Amino acid sequence: MEIAVAKVLELIEHLRMLDAENGEGRIEGEDDDVEAGSGHLYEDFDQDGTEAQVRGVIDALNVDEQCDLVALVWVGRGDFEAEEWPVAVRRAHERRNRGTAAYLMGIPNVGDLLEEGLAAVAVDA
Predict the structure, then answer these.
(1) Where are the domains positioned within the chain?
(2) Average pLDDT score over residue span 96-123
């Protein structure tokens, strides 16, 4: 995986904040297993983690990191099995366009899907 696990965890945290602001996200009472640490990787996030800032962070990732995010969502959503990780990444590269942030942020509960994908490919934080 080309993207650092810490970056994925930080994105999960901020995507969930956006979901909560929009009335989406985890069902009340579910555990939140993501701990991104006390410091933020992205200094340009304010406390509310606005959508524009999250988009900016995703857009600033290199192509390989963006494709890893897409592949993680696909694995988390069940489109690919964890064992198919190389295929998922290759498919993400094949389908890549400049709208990665818009694509990801248009997926309901994308933070949860990223977390599930990360767990499925057995990447240790």
Answers:
(1) 5-120
(2) 92
